[in-house]
Amino acid sequence: MSQIHTLTMPKWGLSMTEGRVDTWLKQEGDAISKGDEVLDVETDKISSSVEAPFSGVLRRLVAKPDETLPVGALLAVVVEGEADEAEIDAVVQRFQAEFVAEGGAEQAQGPAPQKAEVGGRLLRWFELGEGGTPLVLVHGFGGDLNNWLFNHPALAAERRVIALDLPGHGESAKALQRGDLDELSEAVLALLDHLEIPRAHLAGHSMGGAVSLNVARLAPQRVASLSLVASAGLGTAINGQYLQGFVAAANRNALKPQMVQLFADPALVTRQLLEDMLKFKRLEGVDAALCQLGSAIAEGDQQRHDLRGVLGQHPALVIWGGKDAIIPASHADGLEAEVLVLPDAGHMVQMEAAEQVNQQLLAFLRKH
After folding, report:
1. Distance of CA 57 to CAs 54, 71, 79, 172, Å?
2. Which of 84, 282, 315, 320 could covalently link to 368 via disulfide, CB atoms 3.0 to 4.6 Å apart?
3. What is the pTM of this model?
């Protein structure tokens, strides 16, 4: 039984409308397996590899390197089993005849982030999916809800998933009172109250991992499970120079050497990523918030919080990139948790190895 699959331009994040084909990593005639990286695509936010959602033989490359195509456009044809050239031609022609790029109006109706006064301050969050015990995604230091753009839609296939901007970040209010872990954790709990969620799974990246652990310490009955991705709070070491350099960076040349430390592959730090980060850093109140939080997280190369003792009270999953240059993956050793270390990923493991991270998170959440 042969199957002809169409590989199309993915949609990463809310704002993506098109992508530029950078390089093909596989060629016509190559056998590919589900999960293989087939080509690199660059968007105005990020560069990433497109992974094959199916197995088969790459029979037809439709998109050319350097071609910019809308989301959903045809990139290639993959065949499982047998198919002759005429059958493939017919599939390509039919696809191209029926394909309509996402229109502006259509896009405006898609889900959008929400903002509200929550616990006395403005918070922004974004919801996808429905049902089940909700999952809350908590980003790291200097990040925002877009740090989960490769994970949020996949996770939301099975439950309600909420990503938020922590105070001091994204489009949430920038002013902090104490600028400590408790203040961030209280904002997460206030959002749960606002959304009338009695109990949630928490997934936290980096500083967001420490926030999630601290929520579980403050209000254990509100937490169904913990998924900790390259998490702070599980050991003493941290790259203090990165934190200080990131806070101090005021232009692209100063910021780039800091940002490349977040990824195993420095090519993922695009010009646009740097521009967006600088724009955020120049917003009023951000500098003060990052200074406060930076000194609350670490003193030099030492983390201030040891939250390992919180583990064991909730089901826990710990994911790390083996090439993490910010918080060492060795912090995953000896924890009371399921542990997955992805050897070739860096600190932004949920972006660099999204497919494996999503599979692991989905499997873990199904059990709990």
Report:
1. 10, 23, 5, 46
2. 315
3. 0.80
